[in-house]
Each structure stands twice: as structure tokens, then as C-alpha cells.
Design brief:
Two copies of one chain form a homodimer. Helices cover 40% and strands 19% of the residues of chain A. By secondary structure, chain A is an alpha/beta fold. Chain A has two domains: 126 residues, Nucleotidyltransferase, domain 5; 183 residues, Nucleotidyltransferase, domain 5. The first copy, chain A, has a five-stranded mixed beta sheet with strand order 3-2-1-4-7. In chain A, helix 1 crosses helix 2 and helix 3 crosses helix 11. The first copy, chain A, is globular, with a radius of gyration of 20 Å. Chain A starts with 10 loop residues before the first strand and ends in a 5-residue tail after the last helix.
Chain lengths: 339, 339
Amino acid sequence: MSSVDSPVFPAYLGVDVGGTSIKIGIVDDSGQSLAHGKIATEHEKGPENGVARILSFAKALLEEAGVIWQDIRAVGLGTPGTMNVKEGELLHMPNMSGWNFFPIRSYVEEQSGKPVAFINDGNAAAYGEYWVGRGREYDSLVMFTLGTGVGGGIILQDIPLHGDNSHGSECGHITIESGPDARICPCGQPGHLEAYVSATSLVKRAKERLAAGEASSLISVLQRDGVISALDIANHAEQGDVFAKTLVVETAEFLARGITTMMHIIDPAIVVLGGGMDFGGSASPIGQIFLETIRRTVTELTFPVLAENTIIDFATLGSSCGYIGAAGVARKQYGQISS
Amino acid sequence: MSSVDSPVFPAYLGVDVGGTSIKIGIVDDSGQSLAHGKIATEHEKGPENGVARILSFAKALLEEAGVIWQDIRAVGLGTPGTMNVKEGELLHMPNMSGWNFFPIRSYVEEQSGKPVAFINDGNAAAYGEYWVGRGREYDSLVMFTLGTGVGGGIILQDIPLHGDNSHGSECGHITIESGPDARICPCGQPGHLEAYVSATSLVKRAKERLAAGEASSLISVLQRDGVISALDIANHAEQGDVFAKTLVVETAEFLARGITTMMHIIDPAIVVLGGGMDFGGSASPIGQIFLETIRRTVTELTFPVLAENTIIDFATLGSSCGYIGAAGVARKQYGQISS
């Protein structure tokens, strides 16, 4: 690991549980990641086994982080699926049903001997960006996480919006279309944002239009591999394929509708876009077209004051935002207030 | 005024400014309205004149309320239009442009000698329902105010959601439709909830369908008066007109889409429906059909946990919710904490 600034104590253990892998990091009181890595979820072995491997891996990170276990004030834990945040319990975990109804907060507290802050993964990511990422200078933030699905989080004056049933901040499940042609979301409902801007929906839209006879250099990929991916679409857009570029612009326009609704309800200081489906982000010309199209469309759709003032930009923490944010929520709940 | 319970001191002055009239009440620390009334806005005389008449009327209410001016701890002031809540300034006031850019909070503080809490009228109404109305037992609430337009408010753990630019909680400006046939909202944007469920849009939809030849007892009203109103539609639905009833059901279905999006973002404990466009509310069979259709449609559209747990019901404070809520916000900011 590259050299870091001197750690600011106490430190926190941040854990971001996913269906495939679990990201784990030791984060200091200033939000600096001192050491991090990931392990396979291997969910089929059950949650007790997962927690044992999380804690074992965390202890192996201590030396690199330059801290001892006693320096860890608390654990922050973000998970996908549905949950009861107040009770610290997992409810339904997509594709990892062996973890359903597991009282994970109290179990990690027992096994680690540390207090545990429990949060959904979307709000953990949003809190990371709010605390030390793109949103660090602002006091309210909405994050959209664009990937295979669409998630997100909302932070208002340092408080993640969990909702009364731990179902707040479901940024992918905003309705943007309700007519008879509305696309069906993986959740089963029509017209949700996720059904228009996820990687899955991008590929679906591309295949529909190619099947209808539109011309594109993507056809050769489809013929060669039998499938196309969101990354193929991004790459071909980058290489100048007009069809692929149109899909990127269309995705941005759909997303802008969801962002607009969020601005009219939450009116955050900043809207942050994270996840892998960012078309290369700010480093890429296509990522820039994606972002500029979102900004232009939001400006057309929203109130003038919001169009002028609300910042819309890419996230800056990459895939670290989840464990850093989880650590940040642990600091907020159990740490000393040092900033 | 009917007899009230013994006032709980201190008391607050609540003011709900509208384009036509201003509602003013003296509210005690328990949320009980001790005396109230309304005056004409007469906006063309300017804001200084309006404030003078508000304070003069308020002082005339003191005797009925059984309090003296020294018992009034603070003033709560709700206004329509756009504003800067932090700075206490009105920005654009629809149909009362002489009030634009008026620094109303500091002016009322000077003139009254009391601290003033300033809030938009939608959040004031929502806070009233949250404090002592239908939402009094819950710690998060979303209110939709259905009238000529559609407004609303959001209260999370006792805090009204103003937003970073005082543009949060714009419940009428959630997008529910984005196709080419989307209706245009009075704000100029396509597909907003207000364009589907306001009284104005209800009448518009009725006239479109009557013009297209649908049968209804409303045709006689249109022939007699040249116009129909939302109240006519409610009355004819009540009298059994199938066409009018269909319009009520359709309005409920549109509203359910907006409520669903709000539930997926905010996940409040309770959603409250206020304003005049409630088809008679719980006292009326048509109001009951309206509410049941909303509940059934939301159940179809939302996540099972939310469908099961989230309460959806009519508001209980009627047109008093605005001044009571404004008083409540004044109590929250400047009062003693007695509950």
C-alpha cells in the first residue's frame, strides 16, 4: 500500500458485504483508509462463517494499517437486500438466502467485542462520498449507484435516510414512466428508473434495437460472442459508434428524470453518481458526454434555482465508498466527535 | 369559540399566508388552537401593510384566546411561492408579485418584537398534521395537499425537509409519466403529479372526455353553467354518475403512483392527504372510494413491507393545519421542550 498520512485515532473497521465479495478496510478518524482488501462472500457457508472470515481478515490488515485491535473503536457494516436497521437484522438477502433473518448486528458485536453500526449498502456508499468523497463540502447528498441494478443513498445533515421500514433511499425504484409501454423493473413493478438505466436494461435496450435492424459496430460483437455487455457499449461509443453513443445519451436522459424527481423531493446540495456503469466517468470522453447530457436534461426539467445551484458529478471514492462509509457511520454512532 | 382545555403556556402565533386569505391563530404549547380567524390578503397593498394587519388581527384574538401578548413566545410564519428559508426571504410569490424578495422574517421580528420561524406553507401544513393531527403518533410523515394545485410537506424525526435551496418537499412535482403524451404541469414541465391530480387537471380531464362524447350527468351542468368544477364531479360521483366515479378512481390511481415514489424515497410511517380535493374525505362514500383506491393501488405498486406497514389516510386538521403547523415550528425553534 502507498504511504498514508499519520493515522488519526481512533480507527474503525468498515465492512461492505456484497453477493460475490466483501470489502473490508481499516479507516481512521479522518476518513483515511489505512489498509483494505476483499474476500469472497461464499454465502453458501452461512453468515457465521462469513463473519468469522471478515474478522480474521480484518485482524490480518492491522499490521499494514499500523494499528492494534484496541485502536478499533467500532465496526461499521453495510449489507444489500432488505433489512431491519433498527433491530440490526437481515431480512431478505438476494441470492444469499442462507443469510435471511440473521441478527447480524448483535452477532458481529458478540464475535468482535466492538459496537456495530448497521446500515444498508446504498446508504453506506452515500455516507462515504458525503464524509470524505465528492460530497465532503456539502451538508446534503443524494447518490445514485449505477451497476447491474440501480441503488443509492440519501444523507441529510449527516443522517442517512433509512426510512421507517428501512426502505428509504431506494433510488432505483422511482417511477419515471407509467404508460402501458413502461418497462418492468426486476422488482416486478413497471416504470422504475432501474428498468431504464441499469447495465442490464442498457444491454436489453441495445439488443431490442439491433434486433429491429439498427446499424452498429456492436453487431460484430453480438455475432462473435453471442452476447454484448454494458462495457462493450461504452467501448464502441468511445470508438465512435453512433448507435452506442445514442444509447449512452438516452440512458443519461432517463437518469436525469429520476434525478429531477429526487431534486424536487430532497433538494440536496449535490447529486453524486457512482457504480461501475459510469461509462468511464470523468476520465473518459464518453463519461463526459454521459454527465453533460444528464446535467443538460436536468436543467431542462427542473426549477431554475435548482438547475443553477445543484451540483451533479461523479463519485470519487470508487469501490471503496461502501466500507469507508460504513466506517464513517460507525464513527458517527460510536466515535469521538473530532470534526 | 367552543370551550377549550386550559391553555398550556407559552403560546405561539401561527400565520398561514395564502394568495387570497391569511389564516391566523393563537396556539398553545400542546398544539391546541385557542383562537383563530382569517383576513383578506389584499396583497396589492404590499407586505408591510399585510404584516401590520396580521399583527393587529392577532392582538384582537388575544382576549378570546385568554392570553396576553407577553404569553406569546414566538411567531410561526408559512408562505407559498419560492423562498429562501435560511435567509428568511420571500423570492417569487405567485399572483402576489409585490411581495417578491421581501425579507419577511426580519420584518415580522421587528414589527412584533418576537422571534419568527419561517417555513413554506406545505411543510407548515405537514408539521401541523405531524404535531397534533393524523400523524401525531408517528415520527415521520409525508403530506400531499390536494387543491387547485398539489403541494405537500415532509417531516422526518421532527424536522421539516426544506432542502438545500428551500425546494425540498415539492410533492406535486414528482414525475409520474414521461412519454410523449405526458400532461404539462402548470410549472411548465411534463408528467408531474400535479398535472394529473389537481382540481384543475381533474376538470380538464373531465372536459376532454365529455368533448369526446362520453355520457355523464355532468353534461347538464356544463350546458347550464358553461363550466364544471371539481366539486361538481365529486357531487355527481356521489349521486351515482359512473363517468364521474371513474374520474375519481383514475385520480386516485395517478396519486398512488406519486405516493409510491415518495414511499420508496422517504419511507415515512404515514402518508397524509389534505386539501380541499379529497372528495369529501372520510365522511363521504366517494371520499372512501378515493382513499381505498389509493391504498389498493399503492399496495399493488410498492414493496410488500411498505404495503403492509405504511399508513395512508386523510388529514384531520382541515384548513387549520397551516397556522397550527407554523406555530408548532415556532415552538420547536423557540419554545421550551415540554413533550
